[in-house]
Amino acid sequence: MSGDHILSVDHLTMRFGGVVAVNDLSFEAERRKITALIGPNGAGKTTVFNCITGFYKPTSGAMRLTHDDGRNIQLERLNDFRISKQAKVARTFQNIRLFPGMTALENLMVAQHNTLMRASGLTFLGLIGAPSWRVAEKRAIDQATRWLERIGLLARADDAAGNLPYGDQRRLEIARAMCTEPALLCLDEPAAGLNTRESAALSELLLSIRAEGTSILLIEHDMSVVMEISDHIVVMDYGVRIAEGAPQDIRDDPKVIAAYLGADEQEAIAVMESGT
Amino acid sequence: MTAPAPGPVQASRLPGVAFIFKKALISALVALVLFSLMIGIRTEAGPTGQLIYWTRFGDLAAMVATVFGGSIVVELLRQWWGPVGTVRIVPPSVQSTLAVARRAIAPILLIFTFLVPVIFYDQRYILDLGILVLTYVMLGWGLNVVVGLAGLLDLGYVAFYAVGAYSYALLSTNFGLSFWVCLPLAGILAAFWGVLLGFPVLRLRGDYLAIVTLAFGEIIRLVIINWQSLTGGPNGVSGIPRPSFFGIPLTPGDDGLAAKLGIEFSTTHRIVFLFYLILALALLTNWVTIRLRRLPIGRAWEALREDEVACRALGINTTTTKLTAFATGAMFGGFAGAFFATRQGFISPESFTFQESALVLAIVVLGGMGSQLGVALAALTMIGGFELFRGFDQYRMLVFGLAMVLLMIWRPRGLIGHRAPTVFLRHSQAISSELAREGRG
Amino acid sequence: MDYFAQQLINGIVLGSIYGLIAIGYTMVYGIVGMINFAHGDIFMIGGFIALISFLILVSIGLTVVPVILLIVLLVSMAITALYGWTVERIAYRPLRHSFRLAPMLSAIGMSFVLTNYSQIAQGARVKPVPPIITGGYTLHEGSEGFVVRLSNVQIIVVITTVVLLAIFTWLVSRTRLGRDMRACEQDQTMAALLGVDVDRTISMTFVIGAALAAVAGMMYLLYYGLVDFFMGFVAGIKAFTAAVLGGIGSLPGAMLGGLLIGLIETLWSAYFSVEYKDVAAFSILIVVLIFLPTGLLGRPEVEKV
To answer: What's the alpha-carbon Rg for chain B, to the nearest Å?
Structure first.
């Protein structure tokens, strides 16, 4: 593979006690593309995400993020909030983690925390109501409004996030991540629990985000979504990469099918050949 | 008159009666065992130092009977009310009416508070009580930043109150600094201690944090008791200067305020001055808190209370965010402490026990975490309630403890279980705090 | 050296008492995940009940010390256990599914209730008792006249602790109740689905914890010869420190933590300053929580994201 990579994961290993969740994994995510990370349950996908987004410190290996201006950041050297703040990597969670008691709008305002903190002069300018702060606040509200409009939640801007339907919460979480203005957006099963219509809308949203220049790394079980929108797919099983390539290559890869069917390789090939 | 068929009603109630009786009997039996030795027997060190005892079977019987009767009453009430739930007790329609009334309550309450020294000018007792209530309102509002907004359970808040009080007491008695110089210093010192404690411990989970803050509160108190050369130990610090009216002393002399204004001197002037002073301090706390909520830092506090992991994923530095909440709360505690010292003229470690922390915490919880008005009402209720029990001083903590337990069972979300959004597009609608999660960190 | 040996003995005895209280904290935390703030006061109640039952037995003319001790032990364990059960029933069970801070605040309220209740029922003054068990052994007579002594009370405290700990370990590891407890600790919903009576198991946890605290209360009475209504607060915090130091949720940890806290406190008092011994204990709590939040024998926690 060649090309412009926003993220290079290099020999990543993560151990929990004796369990090796991720074993010597290497892959790249291309800039302004959608890379999907797929694999059966327990393959270690979410662990990879947690390493990339700083929630786990990898046992060994390196993860390099290259910004548009050519700046390189070694993600394994940053921890928790700095990944989002400095490296501009945003994420969503498998089980939605909105702020349920805050409104949809407030959720999007919290996401702009670091920008707003600077604008409020670390609170002091904001406390006295300085004009520069008011302008910045207005701008933040506008940005949040734009996103609410885009995900079709403008009418529910002032409703508590916890009161929104499940599908809306998923989209709101993506919008919240986008409000941090990330270079790389990591989505952990964004289509989980969505109906067909909602997944179609999700695909559309993700494609439009890509079109605007944000790279996406995606964990997903819903193959229709993955096959439809991914530019590149990495398949994991038992913590190692078993395949990678374009969607159509992955679809036909016997090793991938074997991993998903849980059968051994020979058998899976036999199944496939007899099937065609 | 047609009798509305009493038969079946009676019949359907009969098993209920048997059930209630059985339950009451069991309760009474449990009470009998519990109280048998603790109440039935009274021990005391006799005149020779030897321990003697006497029996109080009458009291024991009375207690057991009370439990029996009380159990029946509670059970009847429960059947009458049906299952206890917030919705049942305060129906939504009433709540929405309350919401309208609430908008009116705050200004009315504020105006009334301003007028208290005018209306009750001659009643020293009421003025003193007002000052006390306002002190707790201020403490409640200060702690509300930590517990209500940021969701950090702080059981050692009184430590910062103590730091503020001793800062003023020691700076003024040793170096002759005036109240107006010491007030900001007291706040800064308290905030400094808040940061000092907070920095290492704020990574801890909620209940661990609670215990650590409790331990910290006790450490401060024990150090005050034992560091006699500095703090006077258990004897405390006395002769703390009274505040001046921005430099003009409130004394009967020629340079006093009364003489300068050409009015007759009265000790009430000082009380009224103190009343408005604490009112101003409390309102400052309130104003700052309301402002902060609408700033990114305040929103981050609330987000932190809801979901710390999500905050980290959004690039929010959770440690500094918690620290600022801790320091802000501590600072207000310090201000209140300095005020306490100047009002009392004397402070000792006895004023800064764990009970004080628990009282302020109870005010915040009763108020409905995060609600400014709720905290004010709760302080009024609590301190007022304590005053009612003045004659039964020894039962004070018993009643207070029971109230806390019942409060948690009845309305764990406090008097005002709503939070108002900090920013809105069209209309601000209150969010039920049932939705709000509270501190996972 | 002799001085040190003597302090070591004293520390172990004190540590046994803390360990017994700490077990109650650790068990309750393991199952319901709350700090049972009233547990220190349960210990205090246990001390009072031991005192009163002892006084009654002596006044009715019983003189055989082992019999007295056995009856006092059983009575105080039984009644104090009922206190533990009642507290759980009144203050904690209705809050099982309430918001996270509610049980903690309710527990603080309950702690005030119990403290004040003892104060009203038995008066605020310290209650002294004459030494019940006297005598002891001289282990070593130093050249400077310093004598290392092991008193009979100390022996009894340590032996009782060891025996109870053995019974208790058997209870948790070998009986149905113990299995239910461990099941509830892992997953209450799943345990309930598999036929474990969760309410009863939690109640039993409180009962056992309270019974052990009662033993601690009685040992305290025997060892120090006095009780008072306020002794639960500080002892409670120290025992909690012990539970955290040992690793909360771990029973051997609670005992180990208790011994360590007892030793640290005794040695601190002996070599540094008695006034600051509580400050030392509380500081240890803070330091342990910061640097070793899972304790010595606790399981490390992996944050679920």
So the answer is: 26
In this structure, are A202 and A161 located in the same domain?
A: no
Arithmetic mean of pLDDT over chain B? 82
- State how many domains chain C has: 1
For the four alpha carbons of A178, A180, A183 and A188, in that order, the dihedral sign comes to: negative
Q: Which amino acid is at B106?
A: A
The interface pTM score, or ipTM, of the predicted complex is 0.85
Alpha carbon of B33: minimum distance to chain A alpha carbons (Å): 46
The interface residues of chain B toward chain C in range 299-328, judged by CB-CB distance below 8 A, are: 309
Non-local (6+) Cβ contacts of B96 within 8 A are none
Contact C305 A93 (CB under 8 A): yes
Q: Answer whether residue C7 is part of any domain.
A: no
**Is C6 within the bounds of a domain?**
no
Q: Give the pLDDT mean for C246-254.
A: 86
Cα distance between residue B406 and residue B396, in whole Å: 15
**C78 near C85, Cβ under 8 Å?**
no
> What's the pLDDT band for C183 if we cut at 50, 70, 90?
confident
End-to-end CA separation in angstroms for chain C: 53
A93: which chain C residues are within 8 Å (Cβ-Cβ)? 305
Q: What is the distance in angstroms between the Cα of A262 and the nearest Cα belonging to chain B?
A: 34
How confident is the model over B405-433, as pLDDT tens digits?
988 888 777 777 677 777 787 777 777 66
List helix spans (H) across chain A: 45-52, 80-85, 104-111, 113-119, 124-127, 131-150, 166-178, 196-211, 223-229, 247-251, 254-261, 265-275
Three-state SS at C34: coil
**By CA distance, what is C90's nearest residue in B?**
B405
What is the rounded distance in angstroms from the CA atom of residue A196 to the CA atom of residue A207?
17
| Model confidence pLDDT, tens digit, residues A47-92 | 888 888 888 888 888 888 888 887 888 888 887 787 777 778 888 9
Q: Report the neighbours of A using a cutoff of 3 or more CB pairs below 8 angstroms.
A: B, C
Angle made by CA atoms B413, B416, B417, in degrees to the nearest 5: 45
Is position C282 within any domain?
no
